[in-house]
Amino acid sequence: MSEFKMFQKLIYNDVGISLADHKRTLVQSRLRKWIREFGLSSYEELYEKIASDKSGQMLMLLVNAITTNVTSFFREENQWIYMQEHLNEMFDVKNRRIRIWSAACSSGQEPYSIIIFLKEHLKNFDEWDIKILATDISEEILKKAINGVYTKKDVENMPKNILLKHFNSIKDSNGISTFVVKDEIKKYIIFRVFNLVTGDFSMFKNYFNIVFCRNVMIYFDRPTQNQLLEQFAKLLNKKSLLFIGHSESIHKKDYTYKLVAPSIYKLN
Ligand SMILES: C[S@@+](CC[C@H](N)C(=O)[O-])C[C@H]1O[C@@H](n2cnc3c(N)ncnc32)[C@H](O)[C@@H]1O
After folding, report:
1. Could you tell me one molecular function GO term of this UniProt entry (predicted)?
2. From the CA of 132, how far away is ligand 1's center (Å)?
3. At what angle do helices 24-37 and 43-52 cross, to 10 degrees?
4. Which of 136, 143, 246 to mutate to test the pocket of ligand 1 (most atoms within 8 A of CB)?
5. Residue ranges per domain, the chain?
6. The ligand 1 atom nearest the CA atom of 16
7. What is the pLDDT of residues 65-101, one digit of tens each?
8. Intrachain domains 3-66 and 77-267 with the same fold
9. Contacts by 225-230 with C-beta closer than 8 Å and gap 24+?
10. Is the domain covering 3-66 a CATH 1.10.155.10 domain?
11. What class, spelled out in words, does domain 77-267 have in CATH?
């Protein structure tokens, strides 16, 4: 399939995602399904349909097909432990201001975990000015995040008392329980579509105390990762933290950052 290269190029140029050659079979089978569904006759026709779609929705379908939205509450346990241990020195106590960015928030478990964590551990939580920016490239997944409705399986690892305190439990017409994040948690979070590769970082005017950029850099090649890390560096100060996923790393030769704990970085 020589068209694979065309799709590879499209997704790299428009989204920054590096589609590895070994994903060829997976992508091929997904695309074949769409060719049937859309009543098209070739990969080329599908390519044209995606490339000429100004709304970007077709491209998003492609992104959703090759990336995963897998996430969970309180993922990467050591990072939550680290925060708990360093809570007193992490934030600006004088101004009582906290700004955190969940930079590929998927269906919302990450930003909701952040607020729940702060509510549980930060002394005098109500006296702080707290805002969480939660972004993702996918509008569809953000809708899910904004709704904040989760299944029993989604919340199965959450301690019962936390679940009861921060979620409303609702039974649907089939008697199946769903768990809805309470408004008093939601109100701290601003959800926005943002592409980490092509997005305009200059619109962020202030420093973030923490940037969560977890399990998304794996889709980018090294130059794209470096470009993203450079952008983050402009939005962090010496006390800020950058959290990445456990299967990700920042190149040892990148002297902008220093590792302070597994998958946790500070500016050098
Ligand atoms: C595996 S999820 C990670 C969710 C969460 N950060 C975590 O670690 O649990 C990856 C997310 O990255 C998003 N994504 C992929 N490419 C992106 C890009 N260029 N800019 C922003 N988000 C992107 C996907 O839509 C997906 O929701």
Report:
1. protein-glutamate O-methyltransferase activity
2. 16
3. 80
4. 136
5. 3-66, 77-267
6. 19
7. 888 899 999 999 999 999 999 998 999 889 999 999 9
8. no
9. 226/251, 226/254, 227/197, 228/196, 228/197, 229/254, 229/256, 229/257, 230/256
10. yes
11. alpha beta
